[in-house]
Amino acid sequence: VGVWRVWAPYVLSLYWSRHGSTETRARQLARGVSQVPGVEARLRTVPPVSAETDRATLPEVPDTGPIYCEEEDLRHCSALALGSPTRFGNMAAPLKYFIDGTSPMWISGALVDKPAGVFTSTASLHGGQESTLLSMALPLIHHGMIFVGLPYSAPELHATRTGGTPYGASHWAEAGSDGELSEHETALCQTLGKRLARLALMEIPS
Hints:
- By secondary structure, the protein is of the alpha/beta class.
- It is built from seven helices and seven strands.
- The chain has helices at 21-34, 71-75, 93-100, 103-108, 129-142, 156-159, 183-200, and strands at 10-15, 40-45, 79-87, 90-91, 115-122, 146-147, 169-172.
- Strands 1, 2, 3, 4, 5, 6 and 7 form a seven-stranded mixed β-sheet that branches.
- It is globular.
- Mean pLDDT is 89; it is low at 1-5.
């Protein structure tokens, strides 16, 4: 007798974070998701990449810290939020490496019509926030996902003097800030989480 597994609707907040700023954004986004009844937030990260040719030198699963994302986490999500610090105006290599391995889901159309948004953190105000967000949006669009940005109906988008773009939530991790988010950055990150959660509950007509 087969066993049916029932998946509760959840927004997958999938990110790579080197110093913690992007992880902080992922957690704020999850808080936004939790404000929408009937949807859960699931936080996952990706393994680091290394130039080491001997794979045995790197642990498959970390002893501590965030949980690595598995294929089933991504395949069964109701919505996706993808986050990365900027690396020369692009997403970080560990996240790109993980996304490059999702071809089987692209072939099967597992992510088609699911809402997806992006978020990032940079060390300088003009350090490539928008280009990094757009670099993450491209593979999601190729997967057939419905890209979700931040609307200007969010008042913080007009008022922010730190991070925040219509393409997704962003953070300026300026020197001496200890990675703390500004009030506007926090609000915009939670707004994106709430928007993804609400859209995750909507059925897209075929």
